[in-house]
Specification:
The complex is a heterodimer of chains A (about 230) and B (about 775). Chain A is an alpha/beta fold and about 230 residues long. Chain A has six helices and ten strands; from the N terminus they run βββαββαβαααβαβββ. In chain A, strand 7, helix 6 and strand 8 form a beta-alpha-beta unit. In chain A, helix 3 packs parallel to helix 5. Chain A starts with a strand and ends in a 12-residue tail after the last strand. In chain B, the strands form three sheets. In chain B, strands 3-4-9-6-8-7 form a six-stranded mixed β-barrel. In chain B, strands 13-14-18-15-17-16 form a six-stranded mixed β-barrel. Chain B has four domains: about 200 residues, no CATH class; about 200 residues, no CATH class; about 180 residues, no CATH class; about 180 residues, no CATH class. In chain B, a hairpin with an 8-residue loop joins strand 3 and strand 4. The chains are: A alpha/beta (about 230), B alpha+beta (about 775). At the A-B interface, helix 2, strand 6 and helix 3 of A face helix 1, helix 8 and helix 11 of B.
C-alpha cells in the first residue's frame, strides 16, 4: 500500500500561558492510502497535537514529516495553507461550524477555495441533510451539525480526512451515523481517514490502531477484520 | 460566503457598529460640508475680488486736495490710486426709534476703471448730475425699500432725499460693519450707498474733501514699500489710518471666517474619525478573540492567514465605506444650506452651493483609511496565531496582584466585585486606556460646550449690565464742549444722569510694537461706564497714566508701569509718554482708558466731549431719541436695549453651533461607552454567567462592570478638567480677534454639567447592559466554547 504520510522523530512543545507543554516526543509514524486509522489515547496523550502536525495546522518543533514527497516540516505558512487547502479535510469534536452561516453556506465556504470540489448540495444530500440546507447551526441537532461538518470536509474532495473526536459530543446513535459516513468515505472513495478518540470501542472499526501515551506512540495494532460501525459499541 | 458571515456578524452587534458608524458619519459630514462651504466661499471671494478689483491698500485722511492725489498716483510702486469721500449719514425713517445709517461712498462713473468697481445687481447707472444712489441689497431688503423710492438722509446738517437708482455690491463691503466695535453686521440699521463724487459734493457742500484713498500696487512692490513712501506724504493731510488689504474690516473678517472654517473642517473630523477608529479597533479585537475557534477552523480547511485577515478587515471596511458614504453625502447635502447661511452673512454675488464629488471621494478615502488602519491593528495579533493555536482556547489572562493592592486600606474597603473590577482594569490595560480617553474626550467636549454657553452670557451681560450701564449713547458729529453739552442734556425731561466721554483715536507704541486704538476718556466719578478689574471690582482711574485692556496690553507687550508712547492726529505736539497704571480684562474691543480731564490736558484742546451716556426714565427714552434724531450735532444714537437685542439675536446663531457641538459630544460619548460596555460584557459572558450560577443577582453582576466604569469615569473626568481648560484656551486663541476675546474663566458650572452629562450616558449604557445580563441564558453561556 502506498504511504501518504511519513513522520520521523516528531516532537512538539509549546507555550500555553505561563506553562511550557511537551506535547509530542519522538513519534515515528506512517499513514497509508485508503486505510482507516484510529489514534487512541487518554486526554493529554498528544493525539490532538499529532493530528495538528499531520494536518499542517502547526509545525513540528523537531523531526521530519512528509506528505508523499513533500517535506511539511520545512514548509512555510504559505505552503502549509496550500497543503491544508488541497489535501486535508478536518472534522472537529465541536463541529466548528460558522454559527451565522447556513448548512449549505458552511459547506460552500470550504468548496470556494478547494481545487476540485464536489457540489456542496450533493454532499449535503449524501449525508442526509437535503432538507436542511438553509438551516443555521443553531437550528440543527448535534448529529446534524456534525454531519454538516463531515460534508464540509468531504466536499473539498481532500486526499484524506483528519477527525478529532468526531463523536465526542454526540450520543451513541448519532455517533454511529457519523462513523458510518466516515467509513463510507474511506471505503467508497478509497481515501484515508485518521480518527482520534479516547473511546476504545471505536478502535474496533479501524484497519489500524495507534496507541498514544504521554506524547509517545506506545504501540500499533492491525485489525485483520475491522467491524462495521453498526457493530461497534461503547 | 465570508461576506455573508461578516454581514451577519455585523448585524448581530448592530448597535455597537451603528454607534461607530454614526461617529464616523458625523466626522465626515463636518469634513465634507465645511470644506465645500469654505471652497464655495473662497471661490466666490476670489472671483469677486479679482473681477471688481479689491484695492491693495487704504488710507483715511481728514481731507486731501485732488491735485495732491494725482501727485501721489505717480509714486513708484503705485499702479492705481483713487480718492473718494466716505461719510456715514443718518437715515430718517418716520416712526422708527433706532438709528439707521448709510455709509455714502463715492465712486467714479467713468469707463475703464478697474479698481474697486461696484457690481450693479439691478437698476439704472448713476448719473453725476442727479442725486441718485445705489444701495446694497441687504439694506434694501431689511428696510423694505425698492428701486425708485427715495431715502431721506441727513447730510451736512440738511435733510435730503436720495433716489435709489439701483442695488449694488462692492467687494469692499462683503461684510458691512459700521465700526470695529460692532460684532455683527445689521443690515436694518446700517447699509452702504454708492454715489458719484459730484453728487456727494453737491450734497455735502463744495468744501467736502476727499477723505479716503485706495490704491493698487504695481507687480514687484510690497505694501510696506508703498506705505513708507505714502505715510510721510499723507501726514500733513491728517492721516488717520493707513492699512493694507488684509486689515480692511470686511476682508479681514471674511478671511478669518475662511481660515477658521478650514481649520475646523480639517481638525474636528479627525477627532471623530479617531474615536470611530478606536471603537472599531476594540470591536474587532473582541470579535477576533471571540471567533478564535472559527479562525482556527477556517485555517484548518485551507484559508490562508491573509485571507482570514482580509475577512476581518472587511468589517471595518464596510463600516468605513458606509460611514464615509453616509457622512460625505449628507455633508454634500448640508453644504448647500450652509453656503446659503453664509450668503446671509457675506454678500458675495457669486456665492452658491456647488455640487462637487472631490470631498466626497476624499472623505471616503479618509474614512476607509482610518477604518482599515484600525482593522489592521485590531486583527494583526490574531493573524500571527498558528491554526492549531487558534483552535485551542486562549490561555487564561494572567491573574496577578496589582500594585493598587499595596494600599491596604483601599483594597480592604472594596467588595469582592470591586476587587474583581479593579484587577480587570489593569488586566485589560489597553481597553481601560481607551475607555478612559473616550470618557475624558466626551467630558471635555460637554464642558467646552457648557463653557461657551456660559461665557457668551458672561460677555454680553457683563458688558451690558456691569460695564456699560447707560440707556442711550449719543455720539457727536464733532467734539463739543463737555460742560455745555452736559448742562444741555440734563435739561431733558425724565433724565437721570448724564456723563460725557472723550474718545480720541491714537497710536500707542511700546518699543517696536504699536497699535491703533481709541483712548476713552472717562470722568473719575463715571457710573455709566465702569472699568472692572480681574476680581470684578471697579477700578478707579488714576490722575495720570493709562488703563489698558488686557488684549491691548498683550499686543503692546505692556505691563503695569510700562511707559507707553502715544501719538495722535489730535495731539498738539509730536507724541507724549504715559505710564500704564493697570490692566483690566476686556472681552469686547481693544481700548485704552484715561481720566477725561487728563486726556483733555494731553490733547490740549480744552474740555471736550465726543459722546454722552444717558440714563433716563423709561417713558422719556422715545422722546429723547425723537428730539435728537435729526440734530446736526448728533452723529449716532445707540439705544442700549436695541443693542442687547441685536447681541442676543446674533449669539443665538452661535448658540445653535454650540448645541450641535453638544449633540455631537453626547453621541460620541455614548457611542464610546456603549460599544465598550458591550464588548466587555460579551467578553466576560462566561465569567459573569458563572457568578449568576453562584447565586448573584443580575444587579450584583452588573456591579462588577459598572464599578470598573465608574472608577475609570472618575479618573477620566478629573483628567478632563485640565484638558478642557487647555481646549478652551486653544479655542479662545483661535476664535479671539481684535474685536473680542474669549475670557478664560474657570467655570465650575460647565464641569458640573459635563459630569452630569457623562454620568447620564454611562448610566444609559449600563441600563442596556443590565437588560442583557437579565436575558443571559446561563446554560448557554457556560456551555459556549468558541
Amino acid at each position: 500500500m502506498e504511504v501518504i504520510l511519513t513522520g520521523r522523530k516528531l516532537s512538539k512543545s509549546y507555550q500555553l500561558g505561563e506553562v511550557r507543554v511537551q506535547a509530542l516526543r519522538d513519534v515515528d509514524i506512517q499513514i497509508y492510502q485508503g486505510e482507516l486509522v484510529v489514534v487512541l489515547g487518554p486526554s493529554g496523550s498528544g493525539k490532538s497535537t499529532l493530528l495538528n502536525m499531520l494536518g499542517g495546522m502547526d509545525k513540528v518543533s523537531s523531526g521530519e514529516l512528509f506528505y508523499r514527497q513533500q517535506p511539511l516540516h520545512a514548509m512555510d505558512e504559505k505552503g502549509l495553507t496550500r497543503y491544508r487547502r488541497e489535501a486535508v479535510g478536518f472534522i472537529f469534536q465541536f463541529y466548528n461550524l460558522m454559527p451565522n452561516l447556513t448548512a449549505w453556506e458552511n459547506v460552500h465556504l470550504a468548496t470556494e477555495i478547494a481545487a476540485k470540489p464536489l457540489s456542496a448540495k450533493d454532499v449535503l444530500i449524501d449525508v442526509g441533510l437535503g432538507e436542511r440546507l438553509e438551516h443555521f447551526p443553531a437550528q440543527l441537532s448535534g448529529g446534524e451539525q456534525q454531519r454538516v461538518a463531515v460534508a464540509r470536509a468531504v466536499a473539498k474532495n481532500p486526499e484524506f480526512l483528519l477527525c478529532d473526536e468526531p463523536t465526542g459530543a454526540l450520543d451513541f446513535e448519532t455517533g454511529i451515523q457519523v462513523l458510518k459516513l466516515l467509513r463510507k468515505f474511506s471505503r467508497e472513495q478509497k481515501r484515508t481517514v485518521v480518527l482520534i478518540t479516547h473511546n476504545a470501542g471505536i478502535a474496533d472499526m479501524a484497519d489500524r490502531v495507534l496507541y498514544m501515551r504521554d506524547g509517545r506512540l506506545d504501540r500499533i495494532r492491525s485489525n485483520e477484520n475491522p467491524l462495521a460501525p453498526e457493530e461497534v459499541s461503547w | 460566503m465570508l461576506w455573508r458571515k461578516m454581514v451577519r456578524d455585523v448585524l448581530e452587534s448592530k448597535a455597537a457598529y451603528l454607534a461607530c458608524l454614526v461617529v464616523i458619519s458625523i466626522g465626515l459630514m463636518v469634513y465634507t460640508s465645511l470644506n465645500l462651504t469654505a471652497d464655495n466661499l473662497w471661490q466666490a471671494k476670489e472671483n469677486f475680488y479679482r473681477e471688481y478689483g479689491f484695492p491693495d491698500g487704504f488710507a483715511t485722511v481728514k481731507g486731501i486736495p485732488e491735485a495732491e492725489i494725482r501727485r501721489l498716483a505717480a509714486l513708484p510702486g503705485i499702479d492705481q490710486l483713487e480718492g473718494r469721500i466716505v461719510q456715514d449719514v443718518r437715515v430718517i425713517f418716520p416712526g422708527r426709534e433706532e438709528s439707521t445709517f448709510l455709509r455714502l461712498v463715492t465712486v467714479g462713473t467713468g469707463q475703464g476703471k478697474t479698481m474697486s468697481k461696484v457690481k450693479l445687481l439691478a437698476g439704472l447707472p448713476l448719473d453725476p448730475h442727479q442725486p441718485g444712489i445705489w444701495v446694497d441689497p441687504q439694506f434694501l431688503a431689511a428696510n423694505e425699500l425698492k428701486i425708485g423710492e427715495e431715502i431721506p438722509v441727513i447730510v451736512g446738517g440738511r435733510k435730503v432725499f436720495l433716489e435709489i437708482r439701483g442695488q449694488a455690491q462692492s467687494p469692499e463691503f462683503v461684510y458691512p460693519m459700521r465700526n470695529a466695535q460692532d460684532l455683527f453686521p445689521d443690515p436694518r440699521s446700517f447699509g452702504i450707498a454708492y454715489l458719484p463724487l459730484p453728487v456727494m459734493r453737491s450734497l455735502a457742500g463744495e468744501g467736502a474733501q476727499i477723505n479716503q484713498l485706495i490704491f493698487q500696487l504695481k507687480p514687484g512692490f510690497s505694501y510696506q514699500d508703498v506705505e513708507s513712501w505714502l505715510e510721510p506724504r499723507l501726514e500733513r493731510f491728517g492721516l488717520l489710518a493707513l492699512y493694507p488689504a488684509k486689515d480692511q474690516v470686511s476682508n479681514f473678517i471674511l478671511n478669518q471666517e475662511l481660515s477658521s472654517t478650514e481649520a475646523t473642517a480639517n481638525t474636528m473630523p479627525l477627532l471623530f474619525l479617531a474615536v470611530g477608529a478606536v471603537i472599531l479597533y476594540i470591536l474587532l479585537k473582541r470579535i477576533i478573540e471571540q471567533q478564535r475557534g472559527q479562525i482556527g477552523t477556517l485555517r484548518s480547511f485551507g484559508y490562508s492567514s491573509r485571507e482570514v485577515q482580509a475577512h476581518y478587515l472587511s468589517y471595518p471596511l464596510i463600516i468605513g465605506l458606509a460611514g464615509g458614504l453616509l457622512g460625505s453625502l449628507s455633508g454634500l447635502w448640508l453644504s448647500f444650506p450652509m453656503t446659503a447661511m453664509y450668503q446671509a452673512f457675506f454678500h458675495l454675488p457669486g456665492l452658491q452651493g456647488n455640487f462637487s464629488l472631490d470631498y466626497v471621494l476624499l472623505a471616503l478615502l479618509l474614512s476607509v483609511g482610518f477604518a482599515l488602519l484600525a482593522g489592521y491593528f485590531g486583527s494583526r495579533q490574531a493573524m500571527l496565531l498558528s491554526p492549531a493555536e487558534a483552535m485551542r482556547p486562549p490561555a487564561p489572562p494572567s491573574g496577578r496582584h496589582i500594585s493598587l493592592e499595596r494600599w491596604h486600606w483601599f483594597w480592604r474597603s472594596l467588595t469582592v466585585q470591586g476587587k474583581m473590577a479593579t484587577r480587570n482594569l489593569f488586566r485589560h490595560r489597553q481597553r481601560s486606556f481607551f475607555t478612559f480617553v473616550g470618557i475624558t474626550f466626551c467630558f471635555s467636549m460637554i464642558a467646552v460646550t457648557g463653557y461657551f454657553n456660559n461665557i457668551i452670557s458672561v460677555m454680553i451681560f457683563d458688558q451690558m449690565t456691569k460695564v456699560q450701564t447707560h440707556d442711550i449713547k449719543i455720539t457727536f458729529a464733532a467734539p463739543l464742549s463737555a460742560t455745555g453739552t452736559r448742562r444741555e442734556l440734563l435739561k431733558l425731561p425724565g433724565i437721570k444722569r448724564v456723563e460725557t466721554l472723550l474718545e480720541a483715536p491714537a497710536t500707542l507704541k511700546h518699543g517696536w510694537r504699536e497699535r491703533e486704538t481709541v483712548i476713552i476718556g472717562l470722568g473719575r466719578d463715571a457710573e455709566l461706564f465702569n472699568l472692572l478689574g480681574e476680581d470684578g471690582r471697579r477700578v478707579l482711574l488714576p490722575e495720570r497714566g493709562l488703563i489698558l485692556s488686557s488684549q491691548l496690553a498683550e499686543a503692546l507687550g505692556a505691563k503695569e508701569g510700562t511707559i507707553i508712547t502715544l501719538e495722535s492726529a489730535l495731539l498738539r505736539g509730536d507724541s507724549i509718554s504715559l505710564p500704564v497704571y493697570t490692566i483690566i480684562p476686556q472681552y469686547m474691543g481693544i481700548n485704552a482708558y484715561m481720566d477725561k480731564e487728563a486726556l483733555s490736558r494731553v490733547l490740549g484742546q480744552g474740555e471736550l466731549a465726543t459722546s454722552a451716556l444717558l440714563v433716563a426714565e423709561e417713558k422719556a427714552l422715545p422722546l429723547i431719541t425723537e428730539k435728537y434724531r435729526e440734530a446736526s450735532q448728533v452723529a449716532t444714537m445707540e439705544n442700549r436695549s436695541q443693542l442687547l437685542e441685536n447681541f442676543n439675536e446674533m449669539m443665538a446663531t452661535y448658540g445653535f453651533t454650540i448645541w450641535i457641538l453638544a449633540v455631537f459630544a453626547f453621541i460620541t460619548g455614548f457611542a464610546v461607552i456603549y460599544s465598550f460596555s458591550i464588548v466587555a460584557l460579551a467578553e466576560r459572558k462566561r465569567e459573569l454567567a458563572s457568578l449568576r450560577v453562584l447565586g448573584m443577582t443580575p444587579g450584583e453582576v452588573l456591579q462588577i462592570l459598572t464599578f470598573e466604569q465608574w472608577l475609570l469615569a472618575l479618573a477620566a473626568m478629573l483628567a478632563g478638567i485640565p484638558l478642557t481648560l487647555q481646549l478652551i484656551s486653544l479655542m479662545a486663541q483661535a476664535m479671539g480677534s481684535d474685536l473680542f476675546t474669549l475670557p478664560l474663566i474657570f467655570e465650575p458650572n460647565s464641569f458640573v454639567i459635563a459630569a452630569v452629562g457623562t454620568a447620564c450616558f454611562i448610566l444609559l449604557a449600563q441600563w442596556t447592559l443590565l437588560r442583557q445580563i437579565r436575558r443571559f441564558s446561563l446554560v448557554e453561556a457556560l456551555k459556549e466554547r468558541d
